[in-house]
Amino acid sequence: MANFNFRKEIQERIDEIKEADIIVGIPSYNNARTIGHVVRAVQAGFAKYFPDKKCVLVNSDGGSTDGTMDIVQNTTVEDFQSVLLSHSVSPFFKLATPYHGIPGKGSAFRTIFEIADAVNAKACAVVDSDLRSITPEWIELLIKPVIEGDFDYVAPLYHRHKYDGTITNSIVYPLSRALYGKRIRQPIGGDFGFSGRLAKFYLTKDVWETDVARYGIDIWMTTTAIANNFRVCQSFLGAKIHDPKDPGADLSAMLYQVVSATFDLMETYAHSWKNIKVSGPVPVFGFQYAVGLEPVSVNIERMLERFSLGVRELKDIWKEFLPQEIIAFLDKAGDLKKEEFNMPEEVWVEIIYSFAVAAHKKIMNREHLLKSLTPLYIGRTASFVIEAWDSGAQEVEEKIERLCRVFEEKKGVLAEKWE
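The chain above was modelled as a monomer; its predicted structure follows.
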């Protein structure tokens, strides 16, 4: 058993628990408003689906000042009959602990992995603390494939509003699918299941003092599992409804973080992705159904203004690594009205691959390079919003599938330029 330096009261709790079957972790930072609901859903999930297992809930907190940890400690499911349970429920354990290290979700996850390792858990899951749509079934869907199906990693599959998750839809999903050959639809979903084996493997990686610990943890976990040949699957969880983020709002920090982490992983696993020619599906668990989704407001005019401004101000930077015909296209597109504006898949894929190669070859300061992607991403998102305005969920998914295929078709060019 590894030797971690837990705080005295947590070490005492671990000594008391000794071994556990299942751990569910909730990383948090000032989530007093929403975390009670998440804790109740997890506890009800334990009672309903794993009554004979020893279960532990771990809240790994980043220094909340709004009483988040107190709410975790004091929240219980008062009435188990409300979740249709009549049998006796085995006791379950709760640990709430501040984590140490770089502030960020990755450091929170590390604490959860360490506790899972210390109690030798067979299966683990992590869920976001701001989820309004979590149900007890999520716990079953994230844990059972590990316990009963011998999977090591369970990625979430949600229905999301067509304008929610634009960074995933336009960059992270198509790029990671083309690179690593597995069609994991939500590689940065925030809610995952994983085996105790994989938790131990994550702890051996030397990333905890890097940006991964701050913000790149979701894509890092997914890619690390796939690239190291752990068995992966997906579970359908219904709708993901959480504290909303407007796609036209300032996503530049998040875009920078996610793309930076994705490009870092391309360096780490270059030997693995270069030889992969096609992608294939991964098993999906859970009963799929249509869900009502909260609308996401979008301001196309403001997005196009930001795109045009970017073209004017950043073109000289882009000229250093984007093909000439792409620059010519952007020049023209910068002057188009909403009715005429369109950024085709081929152009977008060429842009992303050119940025990846430029980052790999260290053509310029990495932060300047990646931050200059923001207006292009906003332009592509505006183009997608205009194109999908009257489309239903199925049609939107077909558009994303088409983009994925272009990423896969052009991957050979990426591999050549990478050398």
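The chain has two domains: 8-285, 300-418.
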